[in-house]
Design goal:
By secondary structure, the protein is of the alpha/beta class. The protein is built from 11 helices and 17 strands. Strand 16, helix 11 and strand 17 form a beta-alpha-beta unit.
Length: 421
Amino acid sequence: MTDTAGMPSGPDRPDPDGAPPEPKATYAPGAGSSPTGAGVVRRRRRWLRWAAIGAATVVLGTAGAGWAVYTKLDGNITKDTDAAAELARYEKERPTPLVHDAQNILLIGSDTRSGRGNKKYGRDPGTQRSDTTILLHLAADRQSATAVSIPRDVMVDIPRCRRPDGSRTRAQFAQFNWAYEFGGTACTIRTIEKLTRIRIDHHIVIDFAGFKDMVEAVDGVEVCLKTPIRDKDAKVKLAAGRQTLNGEQALGYVRARKSIGNGSDTDRMDRQQQFLAALVNKVRSNDVLLNPAKLYPVLDAATSALTTDPGLANLRGLYELVRGMRNIPTERVQFLTVPRRSYAYDANRDELVEPEADELFTRLRTDAPLQVSRKKAAQTVREDAEDSSDDESDEKPDDPPHRPSPAPTFRGNTAAGTACK
């Protein structure tokens, strides 16, 4: 429509003074400045801002929770700085590591009656001894792990050690677990190193309560019993057959001696090794490792139960240790006891069997392979070499070297052979 002068009517008509026409207002929703469109834009922008703030809060909250969990678990571990300081004083006498990347960790089960829940296992005289000691060797290629039990009653040379009160003991020939009573972890490590000439890279100490917590955290560990167990001293009573042991039952099972088998410490160490293998298998199962609800209690119990050297006293150190073991096949996780027999001068004590014990320590020290069997006693490389030389006695000096002698076999078990059938 036009006015009488023929000019367009409405707001687009040019201004009489020559100003450009005023543009039309557009009222499409959300696109202009009308009351309806502007409100939608403002509400959308406010929603986006609050959504971003909410998302950031969730992310930061999750990260905060993760950091809180990490901090808690990391803080659970007790750092054994006293042992580290004592070992540093004797650094010059300690063995030199021979194989790069191989690791030797000393696992010590303390029989202390002090601390949470431990008094019911006996009176607390203010001392403690190593109830169980295991030397764990991780091969440099992480394709095998060998756990060697050291009998607590074996007679050894114990060096001069520092007591908790600062005084010093005299060097003496005595049963092995006295070393822990004399000078704690440092004295035990120095005794082992003197006996084996193997450098101990790390150590882990766990007491009765810590052991029970570990078993409870994995919802018990399954064992198979050929006969019932009733041991008043160990406070355990179990029926024969397949059993899933809780923490208290498991502790009694690995501590019992007089009422099970032949009543020897060797028989008890065999049971301890089999139980540890079953525990390792339970922890490595997908039901635990892939289930955060089950994994956290295991980590919490494990870190709370341990006293370690400074190198392992953090989640990163423990993770590196576990990561190196996680892919080892169960048939290459081996358990054995150092070859020993009754001590000639006291049937209640033990002594090492040579040359088998020295051969075992040499194999571990040099990261050489060895095998275990439930039935076969130790065979030395020397014996295998003699057999090999008999077979190849017609070799000429310029012939290629004969094949290496097979790895010696010691009496023991693997983690693959301990499962209930």
